[in-house]
Amino acid sequence: MEAKRHEDYRQEKERLTYIKKIIEEEIDLLRHKTYTHVNEDVIPHMVYMDNQRMKKLNGAFLNPYFGRIHFKESNQSKIADIYIGKASLMDHESDHDGVMLITDWRAPISTLYYDRNIGPVDYHCPAGRIDGDLLLKRNYKIEDGYLEKITDIDVTALDEMLLEALEDKKDTKLKDIVSTIQSEQNAIIRADLAKSLIIQGVAGSGKTTIALHRIAYLIYTYQHRYKPDEFMIIAPNKLFLQYIEDMLPELGVEDVEQTTMEILTRDIVSESFSIGENDDKLKRMIENKNHEEIKALRALSKIKTGMAYKEILDVFIYEMIHDILPRDDFIFEGVLFIRADKLSAMFYEYYKRYSVLKSIQMIKNVLKTQFENHKNDIEDNIYQSIKDAQINLNDTGIDMVQDNETMKKMHLEQQKRFKHMKKNFMKQMHAYLKEPKKSILQYYKQFLMNTDLIKRLVGDEAYLMGAFKEMSKHIRTKKMVEIEDLPALMYLQYQLKSTEKIQVKHIVIDEGQDFGTFQFYVLKAIMKEATFTILGDIAQGIHYHRGTQDWKVIQQQVFKEECQVKYLQKSYRTTVEIMDAANKVIEKVDDDNIITAHPVLRHGLQVQKIKKENDMDIVDAIAMELNKYKRDYHSIAIICKNNGQCEKMYHHMINKGIHVQWLKDKEAEYSQQIVLLPSYLAKGLEFDCVIIPDGSQDHYKMNKLDGMLLYVCMTRALHALNIYYVKESSDLLM
Ligand SMILES: Nc1ncnc2c1ncn2[C@@H]1O[C@H](COP(=O)(O)OP(=O)(O)OP(=O)(O)O)[C@@H](O)[C@H]1O
């Protein structure tokens, strides 16, 4: 309700004034802080921390808290009065020193605000389970430092607040949702770090938002154990990173590694190579009418991202080790250091968890230690061999050692060999046990050219054999791989060389349905210590040729069941009208793993399906519409199925004098109110209003890929969706 009408308005207003005063004082203190009397080395860090705090306080001054709870712990008489905000605040006024004025939304007790109703409750904190009664749950709307609304929450009020938040979106970028996190989202954000999680969430269920809030929560909760840079977010592309970039600092998170699969592979395999365009295959599949070629592309991608590929790479690595391992024993100056069979056992048994390079280095270290221990034996043998040689030289058979001249010669020879003993040992050892010296790209090329292995993988499919050959040519001539090759490159790096520099504790992967089994496997192998939160939606799996179509496969083959799959079925983005229309489309895609969305009860305009005589009429109609929509909406997207359609549309728009930004690839930065983009680039993004200019039967056919693409386009809209078609609309829209 309007704040002024609430019975506690006066106290609440006074409280807000007091809090703002405390914040102002802290800002003032920081502004005038001097760094005398502190060690010079720590000054940069202190300045950095103080600047961070200052940023937080400036934000908090305008909107210091959003919630309040009263909690009475069992067996305690005192009622805890807790205000919850984005940043915590302590009272340093003399008589309240140390009292918490605002509690961070990530603190254990704050879960009561998100997750529990008035009455008996419990929550968990480091000290264990705490029982008690929740006596009050209140929400505030504070804007620019003024108290506008106070709402005492029961279940209905919660829905109202959520609806208000959803209707009130005013930005093209994703925003934090700390004041309206829903119970099922809260459970994921606060899930135990020690276990990996897969979240199957429908379009608009808040996966990306949750991913970022989870990172913020983990950093806060484990701040004494892990540094922020031990957490990592893997996003699908740079456009997406740009889309989320404002939210992490807003949530008080800095220094978290935000990366894409391409960047990460380059970090791990630090060699120079180029990677084909991320969407290249998908584009060809969308645009190409040649079914045979599409079949081949799909099959190739499937192979390279599946576990069979890993297994065949294992054979390649095994054969390589077999070639590296010497057949002979290692003997130096007559001393046996290691027998060939023992060496191979060491390699395959003791050191099997290490890379080939690391194993060789460890075995060499063992040999070096042995060298030190056997020095006397080696010297004796050297002496004896010189002596024997001298005797052999003298065919009289008489011991010539007593001869002075001979003695001198022998002594010199002995000194020389003693002096170079270590050097010679090392030389012989390195020649005996050779390290993998080629680049990872060269090994990969070698693998691709191994027709025996590739044949084992693809059988008698000549077109696939040809495709593998073609790939090895690309690597040879252009040093170029495809996005589907990245797991293999990482795996070779991991198995042959080393990946030790990556020390991550938790990885959050968004749009996880675009990752194949092998990709997850290799990430898990490399980031041994890390657990995962994987968020995705099978219904949006437009890259299913290389992605995941069933989470159970990932659960079983990668995580060996040590990972739970959780489901989010409520969609917060779109109106009921839009979601119902989108659900009808996705229901036509024949896939048992697809889960349809339940829209949160927010109604809006009906979806417009508009027939026109020809493309030019469509452009005219859109031009008219845009004039109106520009006033009503902050972000408008015209989403065509492919780039070819976008190009046509773009030229028509320009001719009509309409200013529109055409997003062609994932490196693009989008900054304008009206954007034009192809369907596959729209995934993950959202817009107030979406216009689909090519909803005709000619463009979207009744097949899985087209169904998913259309579903993705439709579910990008928050408030309005218009679909145009010529002659007949797509059967998917019937
Ligand atoms: N609890 C919430 N309170 C307010 N807004 C929310 C809440 N949860 C989600 N939203 C809003 O719903 C929209 C969709 O969220 P988000 O983009 O994170 O969903 P998603 O599951 O990643 O979607 P998609 O898979 O379709 O890309 C965003 O505008 C987000 O702010």
Poorly predicted runs of 5 or more residues: none
Mean pLDDT, all residues: 87
Helix content: 40-55%
Largest sheet: 7 strands, mixed
How many helices in DSSP terms?
Answer: 28
- Distinct small molecules: adenosine-5'-triphosphate
Shape: globular
SS class: alpha/beta
Distance between the termini: 43 Å
Residue share in β-strands: 15-25%
Radius of gyration: 33 Å
Strand tally is 25
Describe this structure in words.
This protein is α/β, with parallel strands linked by helices. The protein contains 28 helices and 25 strands. Strands 1, 2, 3, 4, 5, 6 and 7 form a seven-stranded mixed beta sheet that branches. Strands 10-9-15-16-8-17 form a six-stranded parallel beta sheet, sandwiched between helices. Helix 18 (440-448) packs across helix 21. The protein is globular. The two termini are 43 Å apart. 37% of the residues are buried. Adenosine-5'-triphosphate (ATP) binds next to helix 4 and helix 6.
Short description:
Belongs to the helicase family. UvrD subfamily. This protein is of the alpha/beta class and 734 residues long.
Kindly list the characteristics that best describe this protein.
single chain; 734 residues; 7-stranded mixed β-sheet; 46% helix; nucleotide-binding; helicase
Which SSEs are present, and which pair or pack?
Elements: H1 9-31, H2 43-62, E1 67-73, E2 79-85, E3 89-91, E4 99-104, H3 111-115, E5 119-125, E6 128-143, E7 146-152, H4 155-167, H5 183-189, E8 196-201, H6 207-221, E9 231-234, H7 238-244, H8 247-250, E10 257-259, H9 261-268, E11 274-275, H10 280-287, H11 291-305, H12 307-324, E12 330-332, E13 335-338, H13 340-350, H14 356-373, H15 375-393, H16 404-419, H17 421-432, H18 440-448, H19 451-458, H20 462-478, E14 480-481, H21 486-496, E15 506-509, H22 517-526, E16 531-536, H23 551-557, E17 563-568, E18 570-571, H24 576-587, E19 598-599, E20 608-612, H25 615-632, E21 636-640, H26 643-655, E22 661-662, E23 674-678, H27 679-682, E24 687-692, H28 704-714, E25 717-726
Parallel strand pairs: 2-4, 8-16, 8-17, 9-10, 9-15, 11-14, 15-16, 18-19, 20-25, 21-23, 21-24, 22-23, 24-25
Antiparallel strand pairs: 1-2, 1-6, 3-4, 5-6, 6-7, 12-13
Helix pairs in contact: 1-2, 5-6, 9-21, 12-19, 12-21, 14-17, 15-16, 18-20, 18-21, 19-20, 21-22, 24-28
Bound molecules: adenosine-5'-triphosphate (ATP).
Adenosine-5'-triphosphate binds next to α4 and α6.
